[in-house]
Design goal:
This protein is 18% helix and 36% strand. With 152 residues, it is of the alpha+beta class.
Length: 152
């Protein structure tokens, strides 16, 4: 489940994506498995891109797609089954071929930060599979937000 914060027109700088930790997310240590975090990061990124007018289908019309180059996750406290987690995500930078996206995972009940994460995404040409320049219409649809921001 995703939602915009407010009814602001134009790009959404920091996107709010809400998930619930499901039974299948839980591992033998009785908390959310690291694989679930990567899935949630992808879901949040897709939801943010879609909310800013760039679903995968629109990228495909331009002959481009995003591919993850690297994920980094810093786990701070465990996420447990049934918990509602708020994922805040934003674009930290654009380079010619890549974009860094940040994520902050917050437990809804007390606002504690569960994890911080980032993904280095690379734009690829869907016909060749090779890295390509990020089209200007895409970069113009997002707002760059520094990684060091403080928010709840």
């Amino acid at each position: 489940m995703s939602q915009k914060d407010g009814s602001v027109s134009g790009p959404i700088p920091i996107f709010k994506h809400v998930i619930f930790v499901r039974r299948e997310d839980i591992d033998e240590n009785h908390h959310a498995n690291n694989v679930s975090y990567v899935r949630w990061m992808q879901e949040a990124a897709i939801a943010h891109a879609t909310a800013n007018g760039w679903p995968g289908s629109k990228c495909n019309e331009l002959g481009v797609a995003w591919v993850a180059r690297r994920h980094t996750v810093e786990y701070l406290i465990p996420a447990l089954e049934g918990e509602k987690i708020i994922i805040r995500t934003w674009i930290g930078d654009w380079k010619k071929l890549t974009s860094r996206r940040y994520y902050r995972f917050l437990r809804e009940t007390d606002g504690k930060i569960i994890a911080n994460a980032e993904t280095n995404w690379v734009m690829v040409n869907t016909a060749t599979g090779r890295a390509t320049k990020i089209p200007d219409p895409i970069t113009e649809s997002f707002v760059i937000v520094p990684e060091q921001i403080k928010f709840g």
